[in-house]
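Course assignment 3, question 2. Fill in each field.
Student: A.L.
Task: Predict the tertiary structure for the chain below.
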Amino acid sequence: MGIIMKLTFKQFRILILVGILIYVYVGQTLAEQKSRSWQDTLNVIIYPINGDGSPQSQRTIDLLSIQQFLPIEQFLQRQKRYYGVRIARPVQIHIAPQIKKHPPSLPDLDSNVLSIMWWSLKMRWWAWYENTYKGDKDIRLFVEYYNDETAHSHISVGLQKGLLGLIKNYTGDEYIQRNNVIITHELLHTLGATDKYDAVTLMPIFPDGYAEPALGANSRQKKAEIMGGRIVYSKDIAIVPNSLDDCVIGEKTAKEIAWIM
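Answer field:
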C-alpha cells in the first residue's frame, strides 16, 4: 500500500496499462494454445455485417442460417481424417446477432508494418467492444456482405493474434458455397495457416499450394489446396474453386494448424 501511495498518477496509469497488456497477452496465448490443441470443439462465431448498406445485403443477412455454414464443419471433419486427428467435431459454427457498426478500414496493401500493427490493435479492440454474442467463443469471424464488387469487397484477412477474421462475402444464393471457401481460408489463418499463393499473380505456389503436388509443377489439378486458393489448370491458369468439395488441406497447412507434427 505504501509503495502505491508513492506513485504519481501518471505512473499509476502506466502500471494499470501494463497490467492490462499482460492480462490480454496471457489470455491470448492461452486461447491460441487451446485452439491448436484440438482437444475440444472450437466455437466459431459468425458476426454478420451489412458491408454496403444495401437492401440485398440486408436480405442475405436476414436469411442466414446455420445450414449454410455446415459445409465448413463437414469439410474440416473430412480433412482431419487424413491426418489422424481424433476429435469428432473440430469446429462448431454459431451465428451472432448482426453488428450495425463497421470495423476499422483495412490498411492499404502497400502500408508499412507499423500501420498494419496499428490496424490489428484497433480491430481487436473493436471486436471486443462490438461483440454481440454472449455464448462461448474461440474464434470470431466478422463477415461483411456486399451486393456488388467494389475496391473494398474482395480483401479478407484472418489474424492468429486475437483469433479473429474480417471477411468480405457477396450476396445471392449462387455465392453461398464460394463464400464458405473464403471463410474457411481465413478461419485457417486464425489457426496459424499461411497463404500458399503468389501475392502478385495469385497462382498457387508449388508444391505447398497444390492439392496433388506429386503430379508435378504446373500440372493440371482436380482440386485446390485451401490456402493455395485456386485449382491449377496450367502454368498460367488457375481458377477459384466453386465449393469446399473442390478443396483439400495440404500437408504443410496441416502442420501449421497442428494437425500433424
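Instructor remarks: The mean pLDDT is 89. The radius of gyration is 20 Å.
Grade: pending
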